[in-house]
Write a structure and sequence with these properties.
The chain is mainly alpha-helical. It is built from 9 helices and 5 strands; from the N terminus they run ααβααββββααααα. The structure holds zinc ion (ZN).
């Protein structure tokens, strides 16, 4: 899933929202994600800031997901914890790395294991012997692991739950989870980033897309906005201070997202009886930091937090425990919920083909 964040605090571009800048400090380290810094700052004005590339699937994966969606239904249900894509409670989920060394693998393994303190899952990194951690390779013809971590793709992303081994969207020789550049330099929020991505890998969707959330994203331009770009070609407020909306902003560099991709990543998920969701949790590790200007109601938005969420919230823990329960009775109840979710998926597939 895609990860909205910016290389530089765009709020700096918006004088009326300068107050947001201080609050944004903790997210600034994200700006070090290596993909779009390049040497292209040369010759740019010192006061210009550059948007960060957002968390995103590579185009090839996004295209397959959209193809799968088209071939089934636009009514395909999705879940905040995607019950239809969860692993089995008690399952040992295998994980393999491509790139990085033992020290890095140990750090990531020890950090993301926190999920299994609450979810009845085991993460198996294949490191019990003396040969280090399990690895995978682009030449694999069968899945070496359920979750295949890479560091060399652009951005941070992970497929959701069992999508990681769904050959409609991935292949044995492809990563299912990417942490760009972690093998070169760990960003200061690496723990939060890896917990977030492994949250997707065990089935969590973005909290900011919760059907019960109220993220009033400002998708449209301010009325009368005249498209204005800085020297990075990014959209910025026009000479009268009217701001670009998210479709325009994210439609330009460095993300260049078509509207459908913006919707895929930010729009509220439809309600369904098969969702397993808690009340909207703005402290969730699965909700990314958004600057206030991205909301219609700014800092008053129910979705706004003044800093980045860095640790699992109590509801993240409760959600993981609920979907991956420990007791037999709870497992049986969770299985029924999953069966109902899968039934919905199959109904959607057969009943609607638009
Ligand atoms: Zn995400």
């Amino acid at each position: 899933m895609k990860r909205p964040a910016f290389r530089k605090p765009i709020a700096l571009l918006l004088p009326s929202l300068a107050v947001a800048v201080a609050a944004f400090a903790s997210a600034q380290d994200r700006q070090t994600a290596p993909d779009n810094a390049g040497g292209q700052h040369n010759g740019k004005q010192a006061n210009e800031v550059k948007l960060r590339v957002m968390e995103g699937y590579p185009n090839r994966i996004q295209a397959r997901i959209e193809r799968r969606k088209r071939s089934s239904s636009r009514l395909l249900p999705r879940f905040i914890i995607n019950v239809s894509k969860r692993w089995e409670p008690g399952q040992t989920v295998k994980i393999a790395f491509k790139g990085g060394d033992d020290t890095l693998h140990t750090k990531i393994a020890e950090n993301v294991r926190e999920w299994t303190d609450y979810a009845n899952l085991k993460f198996d990194f294949g490191n019990s012997g003396s040969s280090g951690y399990r690895t995978w390779s682009p030449s694999d013809t069968s899945f070496k692991a359920d979750i295949r971590v890479s560091f060399d793709q652009p951005g941070f992303f992970s497929l959701v739950g069992t999508d990681s081994i769904d050959t409609d969207v991935t292949a044995p020789g492809e990563e299912s989870l990417n942490l760009q550049g972690f093998d070169r330099r760990l960003p200061s929020d690496w723990k939060a980033v890896s917990l977030h991505e492994f949250g997707h890998a065990i089935g969590f969707e973005h909290e900011h897309q919760s059907p019960v959330g109220q993220c009033d994203f400002r998708f449209d331009d301010d009325p009368g906005y005249r498209p204005t770009r800085d020297s990075f070609d990014q959209f910025i407020p026009d000479s009268r201070g009217r701001r670009p909306g998210l479709y325009t902003l994210l439609g330009g560099p460095p993300n260049n997202w078509p509207q459908a991709v913006v919707d895929f990543n930010l729009k509220q998920l439809p309600e369904s009886h098969a969702y397993d969701i808690g009340p909207f949790d703005k402290d969730s590790i699965m909700k990314y930091f958004f600057e206030s200007f991205m909301f219609v109601s700014g800092t008053s938005s129910p979705c706004f937090t003044d800093s980045e969420n860095l640790v699992l919230s109590s509801q993240d823990k409760a959600g993981a425990a609920k979907v991956y329960p420990k007791t037999k009775a709870d497992i049986s109840a969770a299985s029924q919920l999953r069966a109902r979710a899968l039934e919905d998926v199959s109904k959607a597939k057969s009943g609607h083909d638009q």
